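SEQUENCE-TO-STRUCTURE ENTRY
===========================
What this section holds: a protein sequence and its matching fold, both as plain text.
Question of interest: how does this chain fold, as expressed in backbone structure tokens?
***
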Amino acid sequence: MKQNIVLIGMMGCGKSTVGRLLARRTGRRLVDTDQRIEEALGRSIPDIFAKEGEAFFRDWELGVSEELARERELVIACGGGLPTRPDSIASLKYSGIVFWLNRDPGEIYDAVSMAGRPLGQGGREAFLERFAQRGLKVFSFIGDSTFFHSGITGLINAVYNGAKTSIFILDNSTTGMTGHQDNPVTGVTLMKDVTTAVDIRTLVLGCGVKPENVRTVDPYDLKATAAVVKEAYEAEDLFVVIVRQPCALLKSVIAHRKGQHCRVNADKCRSCKVCINKTACPALTVGENGVSISTEDCNGCTICQQICPFGAIEKEGE
């Protein structure tokens, strides 16, 4: 069997121990995703969490999981939080058989040292609460034009019935899936007549969502977006996030962003491919000389720049 053996489970459940036994019995190589990240960055997991935050670490997990998925006949011990991101575990599922090691969280906290484990530093109660709530939050995503023609009634029902979901309305100022037609948010009719633009936030408030539970965020600002997602996750009431950034293929956007692009500083780039694995941006390519960015395809959104762990991507043009 050439498929990988993938071990998942909470931190401290025994993945490393079982992984070593399996590797010895099967003659396979054991790879620990946490160890792989520590070796790549030259830093410990606690240090990475403390200085860069969990989101940064999860991005690295994604890159490592995709690299390992391209190999075969491995025993892969995944970090405890890796499966919580569907994109991180998806490639590993494809590459082999996934085994879940299930162990009671209370037993883990009482029996396993929490030293060097970032998620165990808040005490026993916080540790148990974190894992007790996993998987219970519901997130919903809907485009702006779809929201206008079939999502408003659903939002009203959610308000009326006290749903505690978080709804993300993706406002790209067009109807991209059917050919860039205008919709009520643009203030232009299908006949190109100027009309009243419908403000999504005002509409959401009119449906009964509390003002303190509505946020608007630019998805090109990754830190702000991550902060809003955290708010949505922790919200105890219905929460609405309006994710607003005009479609990059609109002629007006192309004209506005002309001359803006990012470039790779070859002296700083370590070819870790986090930018490629995370964004899948067509402007990014990797070759013998490392990662490069096509100035013809790049519009200077700076997402790759924000996630580069080595500060190797710079923006040019305004």
Q: What stands out?
A: The first strand starts at residue 4 and ends at 8.
